[in-house]
Design brief:
alpha/beta, Rossmann fold, 6 helices, 12 strands, globular
Length: 257
């Protein structure tokens, strides 16, 4: 059982660091985080980018950049995999002025009819991770992506991307995605499984931040045997590169409102 407390934590959040020191910098208010190391590297090489610091937790530092896309400055970071780590990313970037998060990566699909690398927009998540229960009170599910979904669908239609909207299952234990649990969450209406979605939603709700999170379809769990499909980072990489433009376009829309 996780005990929820509504009071503030006692550890002070210091924000991003540089040269082993906290830096006092105000970042662009919209941040894009990507879970793929390959897409992260591709973006900072493709667009004008300035490294400004890194996350302070020493065992998984990753650098934070300001990138420029369509003459718009956007905070850009390598999103750390798992619910506790993405919560830490959000907490630290909030200190440095980020108010809206766009976070994306791949997911496992629970419906074999969902095309490989197509887009999934979660509208509700089943909370089977632990982090969210420290940020908001106990519940089986959490609503997701109430804001910006219409703007994002407009971008998807403009870019001619296939997409689906529906529920996601967020888990802490990818190697415990058993056949029984897959069927259970599929019957609940979940289209996919991943490790961060409901934590992103809960952390942003607690901290009064805006966010939008989405996935591109990866491995297929809706089969007799697990199908890896495009789970490997460089498989169908050109398609995945195009996915990054969806996040960039949404950031520009938000920042130029």
């Amino acid at each position: 059982m996780i005990k929820y407390s509504d009071s503030e934590g006692i550890i002070r959040i210091s924000g991003i660091h540089k040269d082993n020191k906290r830096i006092d910098i105000k970042l662009p208010s919209v941040a894009i985080g990507v879970f793929s190391r390959y897409l992260y590297q591709d973006i900072i090489e493709k667009f004008p980018s300035t490294e400004v610091g890194y996350f302070s937790c020493a065992n998984y530092n990753s650098n934070v950049y300001i990138i420029k896309y369509k003459n718009t400055e956007i905070t850009f970071f390598m999103a750390n995999v798992s619910a506790p780590r993405i919560a830490d990313n959000i907490e630290q970037l909030k200190v440095n002025g980020v108010k809206t998060f766009i976070i994306f990566g791949n997911c496992g699909v629970l419906d074999k009819n969902i095309e490989d690398c197509s887009i999934i927009i979660p509208t509700m998540g089943y909370r089977e991770e632990g982090t969210s229960y420290h940020y908001i009170e106990d519940s089986e599910t959490i609503d997701m992506n109430k804001k910006y979904i219409n703007e994002f669908i407009d971008i998807l239609n403009e870019k001619q991307f296939n997409y689906a909207t529906g529920y996601t299952w967020t888990t802490d234990a990818p190697y415990r995605e058993t056949r029984e649990k897959i069927e259970y969450f599929k019957n609940k209406g979940c289209l996919c499984v991943e490790m961060e979605g409901t934590a992103i939603a809960a952390v942003c709700q607690r901290l009064n931040l805006d966010y939008f999170t989405f996935y591109y379809a990866g491995d297929n769990l809706d089969s007799v045997e697990w199908e890896e499909r495009s789970l490997s980072g460089l498989t169908k990489f050109e398609v995945k590169q195009n996915v990054t433009y969806l996040a960039l376009e949404l950031a520009v829309k938000i920042l130029n409102k």
